[in-house]
Model the fold of this input.
Amino acid sequence: MENIAPLSPPIVIAHRGASGMRPEHTLAAYTLAIEQGADFIEPDLVFTKDDIFVARHENDITGTTDVAAHPEFADRQATKIIDGESHTGWFTEDFTLAELKTLRAKERLPQLRPDNAKYNGQFAVPTLAEIIALAKAETKKTGRTIGIYPETKHPSYFASIGKPMEAKLVAELKAAGWDSAVAPVFIQSFEVNNLKALHALTAIRLIQLMDASGGPADKAEPSYAAMATPDGLKAIAAYAYGIGPNKTMIWDGVHAPSSLVIDAHAAGLRLHPWTFRAENAYLPVAFREGSDPAAHGRIGGEIAAYLALGIDGFFTDFPQIGVKAVASVK
Done:
């Protein structure tokens, strides 16, 4: 494989914080990621009942908090249709922030990350405001610019229950002094109309997320595959700064790489693929070590291979390894 130059110096995005070493979307995970050298920390944003942004992978908090162990909230369990799928559990939009703050985070992948599960019960659910404050404090402390990379989760669903995200998010970021293309912020979404609405409201850089199958939940485009074509990428460039593709859309670790990096760069788009994880369960066969799914393989080698393909940044649960990989290819 020939080396391709990135459009921008590659950035390390701490996926839900240093989530390979602490329960995801906790201030502890974000703080550790910053200590490990991450350029950006990534909160997935959902709304509380009182319209406060908090960081959870999903609005269904059954698997990431101890809510099921709180008898006072037993009657909050519900079944909802979100993006066409039925979910039964407890949902952030049914809790005030004060109520959510009585819960504690737990590890989402205890089978693969038993060491993380040792931290269960220690950390609260953080707000976007707390994450912004952390990034600003750590920027001042370290002398490095620590950015945030929020994802709007299920924006069409939240809009359908009277909780549109776009104006509220832009206002909160603007209050932090972040309202330009040079602000240390990227806003990402798997949906399309959500990003187009944000594009009309702010100059902050936007990232169109794409998966290896399916299409956006808002049905604004027929499929991610169509969006990844040269014509689809040109359309994305009209409202977004870059794309966040599933890493397998660039290379599956076995066959020759796709043309996605070259095609996206031709459209002026940066690429920030996701998600680089150390466990064998998530690695291509060529980078695994042994047969235990929870054992760590050669994630540094995998990241270096993608950097050689010209990516402009990447999401990883192990930012320390990502930082070393970037340094090794400079």
Observations:
- DSSP finds twelve helices and 13 strands in the chain.
- The CA atoms of residues 61 and 90 lie 6 Å apart.
- The longest helix spans residues 128-142.
